[in-house]
Write a structure and sequence with these properties.
InterPro entries: FAM20, FAM20_C
Bound molecules: adenosine-5'-triphosphate, manganese (II) ion
Structural class: alpha+beta
Subcellular location: Golgi apparatus
Strand order of the largest sheet: 1-2-3-8-4
Radius of gyration: 22 Å
Organism: Lymnaea stagnalis (Great pond snail)
Distance between the termini: 37 Å
Shape: globular
Pfam families: Fam20C
Family: Belongs to the FAM20 family.
Helix content: 25-40%
Largest sheet: 5 strands, antiparallel
Number of strands: 12
Number of helices: 15
């Protein structure tokens, strides 16, 4: 019996080494190819502003950022991998469009992705969100937290989630404590891109002038929630936790910082589902999943989870949430009447609260079901050894409200990634290779 276990373990370890090698191999050769082709293709792309040809930097900042990897034949360093990934995932905000940005973003939405892999128009859409004119401002429509619904250029709806905390504020208490972290929405959006999940709506930071940009566009009912404190304009909007001035946010020198999240096209209706691993939000009351190690087997008996991809989507999301420290995934939404719909990763506001706490219970869907899509596992393997934090911080460095995350939050990502990979190894040792599911996360089947 002991020998059998030992053999199984050695077999699993060899399998992991082989798969890791296979995964990294194409990344290395793609990198070589890219570095050879990048300058050539950049110069031939007429939509790139050749005077400011570097991607990234939100405001034109000549030549400050050069991520061209100089790859020597057969000798790829980790920094070159990082630079190449930053280059690949940094939106190019100066990209010039031939179409309206809003139509482009609306056409991207499909049942299993909100945007395509690495579209060059992404920077232009984000830029339009960050620079467009606010033509109307009203209460946020749904949810319990303070937010505004803004209209940009008369046509595009976005949510504005305002800043509550300075970047280095550490939220303590329950895993879901505190107000929303607006910066978390931006970090989550880009993390979703790096992980190739692409299920999070576009998000970008923006600083708005209350007097010049919000008040002139504000509805009468929103204006009634404005007040003054210490010579600054403030508002408290309307939501479950918006009772009055004590629940308001204030400008600083007339400016209020926040994150804009692009509203999904309204022709996609959404169905709301209770998350099977949701918390009770009651002190001393535990949910079933917290006390029952065989909980996953019970979830699998529910028709919508015993076939199809929703359970795997939940596992993807638990990995995503563990990385960002989001213990507040109480519900989730899918597209109505789309059989293959993804779990849309909406609302990441309760993330990046405490970089010193790794809330392992967020990973319960992974460790209780012991299954993960091969595509996500592969992606995670390529981001080990500090690559994840460096790539994400390189991309976030170009957001208008950078720095988006403090170093302790970035370090937490690498630490948590290691825990996830260890957990996957433990699952392989426990259930064998059936822990790895060969199903595309984008196609769903
Ligand atoms: N980008 C979006 N496009 C379309 N609908 C959205 C978008 N973002 C949020 N919604 C809708 O608004 C609801 C509330 O948004 P969100 O979850 O961000 O707010 P919240 O106040 O944090 O909610 P909760 O209190 O439930 O956590 C979502 O459940 C979803 O139905
Ligand atoms: Mn929320």
């Amino acid at each position: 019996m002991k020998t059998k276990l030992r053999l199984l373990f050695i077999g699993a370890a060899l399998f992991v080494i082989y798969v890791s090698y296979k995964i990294l191999e194409p990344e290395f050769s793609r990198m070589k190819e890219r570095s050879e082709n990048s300058l050539r293709s950049r110069a031939s792309d007429e939509n790139y502003d050749t005077e400011n040809h570097h991607r990234g930097k939100f405001d034109i900042d000549n030549g400050a950022q050069t991520h061209e990897a100089t790859v020597k034949e057969g000798n790829v360093t980790i920094n070159q991998v990082i630079d190449s990934m930053i280059e690949r995932y940094s939106p190019y905000y100066g990209y010039k469009l031939n179409n309206t940005p809003w139509n482009i973003a609306a056409q991207w939405v499909e049942p299993r992705q909100i945007h395509p892999e690495n579209a060059k128009e992404l920077g232009a859409v984000l830029n339009a969100m960050a620079k467009g004119t606010i033509t109307s401002a009203d209460f946020g429509q749904k949810g319990t937290q303070l937010k505004l619904t803004l209209m940009i250029d008369d046509v595009q709806k976005v949510i504005f989630k305002p800043a509550w905390y300075p970047r280095d504020y550490i939220v303590t208490g329950t895993p879901y404590a505190g107000r929303d972290r607006h910066n978390a929405e931006i970090a989550a959006f880009h993390l979703g891109r790096i992980l190739e999940l692409r299920r999070t709506p576009l998000a970008i930071g923006r600083r708005l002038s209350i007097e010049k940009e919000i008040l002139p566009a504000a509805t009468a009912r929103l204006k009634t929630t404005f007040f003054e404190k210490d010579g600054e304009s403030c508002f408290y909007g309307r939501c479950l936790y918006c009772k009055g001035p004590d629940d308001g946010v204030c400008a600083s020198h007339g400016i209020i910082e926040g994150t804009l999240v692009l509203w999904l096209p309204t022709d996609f209706k959404m169905t709301i589902h209770k998350h099977p691993w949701s918390r009770t939000y009651r002190d001393g009351v535990q949910a079933k999943w917290e006390t029952d190690d065989a909980y996953c087997a019970k979830v699998k008996k529910v028709p919508k989870f015993n076939s199809g991809h929703q359970l795997l989507d939940i596992i993807d999301t638990s990995i995503f949430d563990y990385l960002i420290g989001n213990a507040d995934r109480h519900h989730y939404e899918t597209f109505e009447n789309k059989e293959d719909s993804m779990l849309i990763i909406l609302d990441n506001g309760k993330s990046f609260g405490n970089p010193g706490v790794d809330e392992l219970t967020i990973l319960a869907p992974l460790y209780q079901c012991c299954q993960i899509r091969a595509s996500l596992w592969q992606k995670l393997l390529t981001l080990q050894d500090g690559i994840l934090s460096k790539v994400l911080s390189g991309i976030l460095a170009n957001d208008p409200i950078a720095p988006v995350l403090t170093q302790p939050h970035l370090d937490a990502l690498d630490r948590r990634l290691k825990t996830i990979l260890d957990q996957i190894q433990a699952c392989i040792a426990e259930v064998g290779t059936q822990a790895i599911v060969f199903e595309s996360s984008i196609k769903g089947r």
